[in-house]
Design brief:
The complex is a heterodimer of chains A (558) and B (758). In chain A, helix 10 crosses helix 12. In chain A, the strands form three sheets. In chain A, strands 6, 7, 8, 9, 10 and 11 form a six-stranded antiparallel sheet that branches. A five-stranded antiparallel sheet of chain A has the order 4-3-2-1-5, with no helix packed on it. Chain A has a two-stranded antiparallel ribbon with strand order 12-13. In chain A, 59% of the residues lie in helices and 13% in strands. Chain A is of the alpha+beta class. In chain B, helix 1 packs across helix 16, helix 4 packs antiparallel against helix 10 and helix 10 runs antiparallel to helix 13. The two termini of chain B are 56 Å apart. Chain B contains 16 helices and 33 strands. The longest helix of chain B has 38 residues. In chain B, the strands form nine sheets. In chain B, strands 6, 7, 8, 9 and 10 form a five-stranded antiparallel sheet that branches. Chain B is 38% helix and 27% strand. Chain B has two domains: 366 residues, 7 Propeller (Methylamine Dehydrogenase, Chain H), CATH 2.130.10; 236 residues, MetI-like fold (Orthogonal Bundle), CATH 1.10.3720. The chains are: A alpha+beta (558), B alpha+beta (758). Chains A and B meet through helix 2, helix 7, helix 8, helix 9 and helix 10 of A and helix 1, helix 3, helix 4, helix 5 and helix 6 of B.
């Protein structure tokens, strides 16, 4: 082989090609790594961990409340960053572990890093219990005995101990539901009735005063008194139920040796983390997962579920789609089918296109100024002047959030619809017109059906963008905790003026406004996981529809 | 004419519906497009009032018949309904402008033996200070009581409270000038008089005793004699509102500033305000609200302001020439500062003008048709009052919603009170009433550009080479999977990226900064080295790697590189980034300490490096998609031609594809820029949100978008801050709109170019 031929199979710039592959690989690593990281962390939140018990050398700075024992779930294991030039450590001694130690009421913290340099013993006690409580997060302890209301004591070694405790927690759970029913719904109903009457009274008072009105106001007063009586009855009922929650108590000892007394009514659920079989773990995992989707948040949103946020996101996105579809489609039909194609329309098209690139916060501030203050304020003055100065529509609400996002995503729909309209082949149009159909009939029966998948793609993309957007929502109606859902059983059922919770804002709020951000992180990951799944699913859907659409057009050209 | 056969006729309903729909679509479509552009109009409408000047309308002229030549000052209540003219003998002439009371007189409850030699009305404190011929001084507060009649009508009653007479000068010296300032704990009365041709300047401090039963009696605390410290003849004195300092205006055109230090009032500074001006004499000098700025004028109508500040490292505040106002025609004789903001009203001869202290702006100026003898400005900055030489009162309404705004306020360099130099600062709210809102948008724009710069620094190289590689070297089958995968990146909500940046990435980077810096060099080197090594293999091994699969090999190489860096990083830190820990005195290897010590600029955990990385992450898919489209749409004929002539695939890509698609690539970068500049949540979460003006990669920033999101919930509707934030949004809107339009135009040009080539 001569030298020339060797040169020829080494074309110039191959090394540079390798270099250029770096960009793609890096992008792929980033996206796949990120999504799997969130997936892993998001799923891990629901998986029951083992609880490790650590014994340290006493007096080495690892003591908690004077004890050198600690127990908890391992949340992070990392090597220490040793900045001091003279210190050299190896193996376990060079590590620090972060434990979720629970018992926030006893320790004052629930997450803490421990230096493993002074570790004496690591063990996994079989009878340690992890209980989820309705305050102070979860508790990790050794049970001693169960004090029943009839005076009996049930020792932890008693074979009936676990089943009895389970039954009691179930009982308390049912009672908790009753309490919630009374406090949230029944009392809520009475409150809204009283509020309505108060508004009517105010309306009458504004009219002036004559005997007839006085009499009416008087009758209203009586009604309010009656309602208040009902309110007090309910309050008493719930008080009784609440007292019942504390009848049975669990006496226990936490790992530092401190005693702990837990009313059973405080325990949501409990399990022996170090005794679990894989099947048990899967069942607990499923239970946690289901709770996450269906329950209301607890403990400043760091525990419980995120149902209101899911529901809020769903309703808001739905309202947004309802608003954006007709507007976007009509504008696109006008631009493509009716407007005279010239410089002006081209300019409008470019401008609409660019509007999609305008930062979302600009739409947010517009929504605040225009929808909330101007439109909402005017509505309040006309229809809700009685409850002023408390604003009804003149403050952030789900309708304004939906409209703001609709405005933000309307360019997306216009662009997608226009593309779809222009992809409908000339042959089909002309065929329809030649058969004697009018312009609108052609649009309605030929063009719109043919471009429906394209429009749908645009709509899905708009929904994906709307569902993931947070910045504008912060200005027009999203809140960290909305006691009432935007759709519920109280007339008129759909409450467009209500504030709402949103998955994206939930992430922001948990991660950044939470008093205990370390405790919030698992929840943030879980929420992030859900939001990403939602958005990615929507986007994948759009991509799939788009690909099908392309094939269909290729087939249907004359 | 024969009727049209039935089968050719269209049902009337169809025609009607068709007509209706056609009109509906046109009207609806146009309406929606207009509505969408209405955003621009609406935001503009919110901004315009920011640049309005004050609107002043004459409301009434009242024949009060005041003895004009005896009036030394005018005072007003909050609503300007019951002005008071203070005469030279300290009698008060109230004039009821609304009611039927007309003009009535009220005298201070002075003893008959008190011979007044000094009457000084200080409008900004609403205090009348009187001095006697035997060296005593008393302070009267000219307050108002507001009563409501049963009909709901408001009636203003004068409420004058005269304080005790305090001996300040000795009993033989008549008081010629006197002023008072302070509240409960520290109060200062200052007086000037002359004995035997010698000027005497003395002061007393008063202290209010506190007791269990509330505020106690005010007693004289300490006497001061400044006579020897004061250089020259005193023309006017101004004690600051808290009584902790005073400013003397001298006949020779200097200002002498005294401030409390412990128990003494040393002379701190001698200011020569008009040293470089034609006329050096000070005609009038007064404090603005907050007593941090002292405005002086001379006979030529020059008006300048001196503000106090604390220089770096200095212990005491000092004054510096910070403001220069537009000249006023005529000799300025009257000066009154506003009680609500830094505005002040000045008048001389027939000219009157409202100026704003912070921005040096002339809010209003007019030549009136009478000689101005006295002026007053109502507390709410809504009314002003002039007295002419006939003793008539002229009342004017001021409408000025945003006195502190203006072009200078938002974009100019301003020397704010308390600052050591003129600067661009954003600080919209402060703790006190006399706080000067600092509304410069420049640091926010710089912040936006800083974030965008670092994001693009990271995103542009990666996404462009990724696009080049994907469009030129990857096989179509692989591309069909790879491209949507990268595009999915674009759909990740920014709140997710922001959360990851702040709570996950920032702590990781913070632990190992050197490792991350190393990665930037090590990872490409490893890939390049492997590429070179691969080229050394014989061809039969090389063909085993399918065309366009280099990226699959590069993935483990990148992991390897990153792993190596985490190993080497701490070692590198131990060699290069060793500093002495200031707290323990030990030598430690810590980049986070090394950076501020060596570079002199701060290091924070949530910094531009993290933001740039994560925001870059958001921008990569956008630049990638658009530039990939541009590159893969380069006409095949061009590429084939190049390859057929013997150019390698790399040579073709660099020399043919890149130049042809240049416009498309440019437009991709522009759109990426637009996305990064307006990104909100990532910046809100992953930076400290402090408005800084540097490009330091290890510090945070505050961007226009984040600023809007953070501040608008606190801004009352239609306040200056509210409109200022709209202005910020408009700036953002215009930047992105312009950038996107350029990008779009470039892309269309490119499309046409491709058409002609084909």
């Amino acid at each position: 082989m001569n030298k020339e031929s060797i040169k020829s199979d080494r074309p110039k710039g191959e090394v540079a090609v390798w270099f250029s592959s770096l960009g793609l690989s890096l992008s792929l690593i980033l996206i796949i790594g990120l999504v799997s990281m969130i997936f892993y962390n998001g799923i891990l939140v629901f998986w029951p961990d083992q609880v490790v018990m650590l014994e340290f050398q006493k007096g080495k700075g690892q003591d908690v409340k004077g004890s050198n024992f600690i127990a908890g779930e391992i949340t992070k294991q990392q090597s220490k960053i040793i900045k001091d030039l003279n210190v050299k450590l190896d193996g376990l001694a060079a590590q620090e572990w972060q434990l979720h130690v629970g018992n926030k009421d006893a320790y004052g913290f629930s997450y803490k890093f421990f230096d493993m340099q002074h570790l004496v013993k690591e063990s996994y006690p079989q009878d340690i219990i992890l209980a989820e409580r309705n305050e102070y997060g979860s508790a990790i302890f050794f049970a001693k005995y169960l004090q029943l209301k009839n005076g009996d004591k049930l020792n932890k070694d008693d074979p009936k101990f676990e089943t009895t405790l389970k039954e009691l927690t179930q009982e308390c759970k049912a009672r908790r539901k009753d309490i919630l029913q009374i406090e949230k719904f029944e009392i809520g109903k009475i409150n809204s009735k009283i509020e309505d009457i108060r508004l009517e009274v105010r309306a009458l008072q504004r009219k002036g005063s004559n005997p007839e009105i006085e009499a009416k106001i008087h009758s209203f007063d009586a009604e309010i008194k009656f309602l208040q009586k009902g309110y007090e009855d309910l309050a008493a009922k719930s008080r009784v139920l609440r007292e019942k929650q504390n009848e049975n108590t669990l006496h226990a000892e936490i790992v530092t040796g401190e005693p702990m007394i837990l009313p059973v009514g405080n325990i949501y659920s409990f399990y022996y983390p170090n005794r679990l079989s894989t099947v048990d773990k899967i069942s607990i995992f499923t239970k946690h997962f289901a709770e996450f989707f269906t329950e209301d948040p607890r403990e400043a949103n760091t525990e419980g579920g995120i149902f209101p946020a899911i529901f809020g996101t769903f309703v808001m996105t739905l309202l947004m789609s309802l608003a954006v579809t007709p507007f976007g489609v009509v504008a696109a039909i006008y631009l493509r089918e009716y407007a005279k194609q010239g410089f002006l329309v081209r300019a409008v098209r470019v401008a609409v296109n660019n509007l999609a690139g305008v930062p979302s916060i600009v739409f947010g501030i517009f929504g605040l100024g225009f929808f909330v203050y101007l439109v909402g304020g005017t509505l309040d003055e006309i229809f809700f002047s009685l409850s002023l100065p408390t604003p009804t529509f003149g403050t952030g609400g789900i309708i304004w959030a939906a409209l703001t996002l609709a405005l933000m995503t309307v360019p997306v729909v216009i662009v997608a619809t226009e593309e779809a309209l222009s992809a409908v082949s000339r042959g089909m149009r002309e065929g329809s017109l030649a058969c004697g159909a009018s312009k609108w009939q052609t649009i309605q029966n030929i063009i719109l059906p043919a471009s429906a998948p394209g429009i749908l793609t645009g709509l899905i993309l708009a929904m994906a963008r709307g569902a993931g957007e947070v910045a504008p929502l912060m200005l027009v109606g999203v809140v960290k905790l909305a006691p009432e859902l935007p759709i519920d059983g109280v007339a008129p059922f759909v409450h467009l003026e209500r504030k709402f919770m949103h998955l994206g804002f939930h992430i922001y709020d948990l991660g950044f406004q939470s008093p205990d951000s370390e405790a919030a992180i698992p929840m943030v990951f879980a929420t992030t996981f859900l939001l990403i799944m939602l958005v990615v699913a929507l986007n994948l859907g759009a991509i799939i529809i788009r690909n099908r659409l392309r094939k269909k057009y290729q087939a249907s050209t004359f | 004419m024969k009727p049209i056969p039935e089968r050719f006729r269209v049902a009337k309903k169809t025609l009607l519906f068709d007509k209706f729909m056609n009109n509906f679509i046109v009207v609806g479509g146009l309406g929606i497009i207009l509505a969408v552009f209405g955003i621009f109009i609406f935001i503009l409408a919110e901004i315009i009032p920011l640049f309005d000047k004050a609107e002043v309308k004459q409301s009434t002229v009242f024949e009060a018949k005041l003895p004009a030549n005896r009036v030394i000052g005018l005072g007003v209540d909050e609503w300007c309904e019951l002005p008071v003219a203070i005469l030279d003998d300290a009698s008060l002439l109230y004039t009821d402008l609304l009611g039927t009371r007309g003009t009535f007189e009220k005298k201070l409850p002075l003893d008959a033996s008190d011979k007044l030699t000094c009457v000084n009305y200080v409008a900004r404190k609403q205090e009348l200070i009187v001095g006697t011929n035997d060296g005593r001084v008393a302070v009267a507060e000219l307050k108002y009581a507001t009563n409501f009649l049963p009909s709901g009508q408001r009636v203003i009653e004068p409420d004058v409270q005269l304080g005790e007479m305090y001996p300040v000068l000795d009993a033989k010296t008549a008081v010629t000038l006197a002023d008072f300032g302070g509240k409960s704990e520290s109060q200062l009365i200052l007086a000037v008089g002359t004995t035997n041709g010698k000027q005497i300047v003395k002061g007393v401090t008063l202290k209010q005793k506190r007791s269990l039963f509330g505020k106690g009696k005010v007693e004289v605390d300490t006497d001061y004699d400044f006579s020897n410290q004061v250089k020259g003849t005193v023309k006017d004195i101004d004690v600051s509102i808290f009584g902790e300092s005073f400013m003397l205006t001298m006949e020779d055109g200097t200002l002498q500033f005294f401030a409390k230090e412990g128990e003494t009032f040393p002379l701190r500074q001698i200011i020569k305000p008009f040293e470089s001006f034609a006329d050096k004499e000070i005609v009038k000098g007064e404090y603005l609200l907050g007593d941090a700025t002292f405005v002086v004028s001379n006979k030529n109508g020059d008006i300048i302001g001196y503000s106090s500040y604390l220089a770096k490292g200095a212990k005491n505040i000092q004054f510096a020439h910070t403001k220069t106002f537009e000249k006023i025609p005529g000799v300025l004789k009257h000066f009154t500062s506003c009680l609500r903001n830094k505005a002040f009203l000045i008048a001389g001869e027939k000219y009157a003008s409202i100026r704003y202290g912070t921005t040096e702006d002339t809010r209003w100026e007019k030549k009136l048709d009478f000689d101005i003898q006295s002026i007053a400005l109502s507390g709410k900055y809504e009314k002003m009052l002039f007295m002419d030489s006939e003793g008539r009162l002229h009342k004017y309404d001021i409408t000025d919603h945003h006195p502190e705004s203006g072009f200078q306020a938002f974009f100019g360099k301003i020397w704010y009170e308390g600052q050591p130099e003129a600067d661009y600062i954003w600080q919209s709210t402060g703790g006190t009433d006399d706080f000067e809102p600092k509304l410069s948008l420049i640091p926010l724009i710089i912040g936006s550009l800083k974030g965008t710069f670092y994001a693009l620094l990271f995103a542009v190289p990666i996404s462009l080479i990724a696009a080049l590689y994907t469009s030129q070297f990857v096989t179509p089958d692989v591309k069909r999977i790879v491209k949507p995968t990268v595009e999915i990146m674009a759909s990740l909500p920014s709140v997710v990226l922001g959360f990851l940046a702040a709570l996950w990435l920032a702590p990781i980077v913070d632990r190992q900064v050197p490792s991350f810096l190393l990665m930037i060099i090590v990872v490409p080197t490893i890939v390049l080295f492997f590429g070179w090594l691969w080229q050394q293999f014989p061809v039969y091994i090389r063909v085993k790697l399918p065309v366009g699969m280099e990226f699959a090999i590069a993935i483990p190489l990148i992991f390897l590189g990153c792993y190596l860096c985490t190993l080497i990083g701490p070692e590198v830190e131990k060699i290069f980034f060793v500093v002495t820990d200031p707290t323990t005195g030990k030598k430690v290897a810590d980049f986070r300490l090394w950076w501020p010590e060596t570079m002199g600029i701060p290091y924070t955990q949530r910094n531009a490096l993290v933001v740039g990385f994560v925001m870059g992450f958001a921008v990569i898919p956008i630049i990638f998609t658009i530039s990939e489209d541009a590159m893969s749409n380069v006409p095949k004929s061009l590429r084939s031609g190049s390859l057929a002539l013997g150019a390698s695939r790399w040579q073709t890509a660099i020399n043919i594809v890149l130049p042809t698609a240049a416009a498309g690539i440019f437009s991709a970068v522009m759109i990426g820029f637009g996305r990064a500049v307006g990104e909100t949540m990532i910046v809100v979460m992953a930076t400290g949100n402090t408005a800084v003006m540097d490009m330091n990669i290890f510090s945070g920033m505050r961007t226009l978008s984040a600023n809007t999101a953070v501040e608008i919930p606190e801004a009352p509707q239609h306040s200056t801050l509210y409109r200022g934030l709209f202005l910020g949004a408009m700036v953002l809107f215009l930047i992105t709109f312009a950038v996107n339009t350029i990008a779009e135009v470039m892309r269309q040009k490119l499309r046409e170019r491709y058409k002609t080539v084909e």
